[in-house]
Amino acid sequence: MINAQDFIKDLSLQVLSPAKRTEWDIHAAELNRPGLQFVGFYEHFPHDWPQVVGLTEMSYLESLPAELRRERLEAFFSYRSPCMIICRGMMPSEDMLELAAKYDVALLRTQAVTTRFVANAMNYLNRCLAPRATLHGVLVDVYGMGVLITGESGVGKSEAALELVRRGHQLVADDVVDVCRITENRLIGESPEMVRYLMEIRGIGIIDIKAMYGISAVMSSKTIDLIIHLETWKEKKSYDRLGLTDDFTTIMDVRVPQLVLPVRPGRNVAVVIEVAARNFSLKQNGYSAAQELDRRLNGLIDAAKQ
Q: CA 248 to CA 224: how far, in whole Å?
């Protein structure tokens, strides 16, 4: 379900004819341009999508005789679509306004050109309808990389994020991260509005990162590119020292790269997270220091055999 008022507000739409329905039963991030319907073809008509009228459709309607135009519009509005959006700031005809009110279809208008509005509206619907989950962790933007810091309570996630903010990076969410899957392989994380930009530091309490460090220290949402799991250092556990293999975790059927970072007194976790983000960025661009070391060692071995 899509909230009608949120749709109108977030896409900066003008209401030409209001409707009584406050929620629209929309289940797909799609919009329809009803050119075929205006000529009388209704087979496979996606009437439950928002209907977008651009310059082409409006010009065709204006070219019709008044009686025929009203007949076509009557048939169209009788399907009771959620809404009709007129682009380019064009004015609707009187019969369009009348029939929209008759069939309780919200008639809206935007100043944007049709293709741009369609793209913006589809992105908006995609986010509203995306699968969602809530995770425990801290999301930080580090060198343009969305890093989700996870770990047991008290391991130092917030303290590491605070140090990252002091070093010029941006906080997205602390403790609670709302995650939505906007595409098949892309996750977006943000903070619940109630605790946005707030952080809990044990021994101090709640602090406001935006108030303390300014608007440049926070970000409203960010893709989740890398997960760094903090855990207390275990002496008998063998940790990866070369980085030749990649580990992943799955969130809402999306595989996200993950690193396990052991924590012990004296280790600067924030600096290590910075290095991990930079190193991951290099790997995405095709360079791996571990593979480079492996290549050099193989080169020495081959040279020794000759």
A: 13
172 and 37, same structural domain?
A: no
Give the pLDDT confidence of 63-77 residue by residue, as tens digits: 999 999 999 999 999
Starting at the earlier edge strand, list the strands of the sheet with 106-109. Answer: 14-17, 106-109, 83-86, 51-53
Catalytic residue among 20, 237, 241, 305: 241
Establish whether 229 is a catalytic residue: no
Residue 237 catalytic?
no
Do 188 and 70 lie in one domain? The reply is no
169 carries an active-site annotation: no
Confidence of residue 243 (pLDDT cuts 50, 70, 90): low
Of 129, 162, 196, which one is at a domain's C-terminal end? 129
Choose, from 69, 157, 169, 229, the residue flagged as catalytic.
Answer: 157
Instruction: Establish whether 104 is a catalytic residue.
Output: no
User: Given 102, 136, 167, 278, which residue is catalytic?
Assistant: 136
The total of structural domains in the chain comes to 2
263 within 8 A of 149, measured Cβ to Cβ: no
pTM comes to 0.72
